[in-house]
Here is the input.
Amino acid sequence: MRPAPYNNRAPRYDDAEHMMEVLGGSFVKALVNLWYCADLNNRPRVRAAFPEYFERYEKMFNEWKANKL
Here is the structure.
């Protein structure tokens, strides 16, 4: 069996939460998984408990998006 060819495409992110899921450490990945599982009433509560993570990745996403265009 031959190995898959190297994929050198630039990464693509849908939003800040997707970036958290892909680039985050184990805690951030678990946090965004909790956010994904939460209903619309509980998502603000998850975000309010750890605003620094969501704000950090929103900033990263906005910078990535601005440089991508």
